[in-house]
Amino acid sequence: MSEIKKVYFKTFGCRTNLFDTQVMKSNLLHFECVENEELADVVVVNSCTVTNGADAGVRGYLNKMRQLNKKVYFTGCGVGTKGEEVFNNNLAHGVFAHSFKERVGEFLSHNERFFYAESAPMHLDSTIVTHFSGKSRAFLKIQEGCDFACSYCIIPSVRGSARSYEKEKILSQIRSLCENGVSEVVLTGTNVGSYGKDLHKYNLARLIKDIDSLKMLKRLRIGSLEPSQIDSEFKEVLQLPLMEKHLHIALQHTSNAMLAIMNRHNRVESDLELFSYFAKRGFCLGSDFIVGHPGESEAVWAEALANFKAFPLTHLHPFIYSKRDGTPSSVMKDSIKGDVSKQRLHTLKSIVASNNYAFREANNGVLYVLCEHGIESSEGFVYSGLDQFFNRIRFESKNAHLEGQWLTFDAYNIGKDGNYGKI
């Protein structure tokens, strides 16, 4: 045990994984966590397996750590798909599934190699996370798992069915985070909008009301939602001053034919009605979009693009489809050439960038910004932060140590690629 002192966590993938890493850091016991892998005796790899490309990125990192003679532990979503391969190829000293992550402090002292496959797919952590890597914004996982069956997605099989954390645990975590300097929280999970479906007469809207009643946070943001999960009660709580004026609603596509191929629940007509509702109420709106999925013919793409232009989207997280072995999409025919997919992706990004600029010009009122980080310059410091619409502003100041502070901007310049100011 004495020979293992410093531990580095390498996190791949989503915000849920970032929170899982914080859970492990909270359970390190007598080991020191470092932020530089070169200083570490041990590296814990929290993996993502959402696509074959994600697997390849993790595998490349594991090979790099072996060349550096690091003692490696492998966990995360990749345990269910690549864990045996990683263990058998001696790329990790130990492999452990999601439900074992709170035992990480114990595992780091094991001299014998081990493999712990998932034995409790409905597990929920008991750890209360009190810090989030020294930041003023924290991601807070409120649920695990997903009951959807999108044809391209492996995640339900590695994260399990949807289940929710109890209200009191979530509120306790928010109290602890706020007491340690956090002032903005992002609610996250595998499928955030399903929160409460397994709880008695409780849901995401009621959780938000209870968080608001604490009067401890400056701002609350919600991770990706499914259109079908947004009801009248949820729309009501979004008007609370605590809530960010930005929503991320997962469309994945704007062709009904493509949505059917993807085995999605949403359809274009109701999606557009929902987005228009929020746009009229001053929200910035983001989404995910997969281009190049099998079946996205020229005709389907033409329909999707015409529909897409009608959506008031100001933010977009577009993906070029990447095969994930073991999913229905991975064996579908009619694949799309890579150069075609890239062009389609650039087209969507250009449309949304123009929408975002138009939104910022039309809504040029006061911005409330959480300062994230800064670098020293010849004139002082250059800082960056996100406003209430999830738009980034970069600003100059002669003041040091503004990180973590809330700032108000009533005068600033609106550029094509973002807002700029001084303070």
Automatic annotation (TrEMBL):
Domain MTTase N-terminal: 5-113
InterPro entries in UniProt: Elp3/MiaA/NifB-like_rSAM, Methylthiotransferase, Methylthiotransferase_CS, Methylthiotransferase_N, Methylthiotransferase_N_sf, MiaB-like_bact, rSAM, rSAM_horseshoe
Keywords: 4Fe-4S, Iron, Iron-sulfur, Metal-binding, S-adenosyl-L-methionine, Transferase
Cofactor(s) needed for function: [4Fe-4S] cluster
Domain Radical SAM core: from-to ranges: 132-358
Any Pfam family matching the protein: UPF0004
One GO MF term: 4 iron, 4 sulfur cluster binding
Name of the protein in question: tRNA (N(6)-L-threonylcarbamoyladenosine(37)-C(2))-methylthiotransferase MtaB
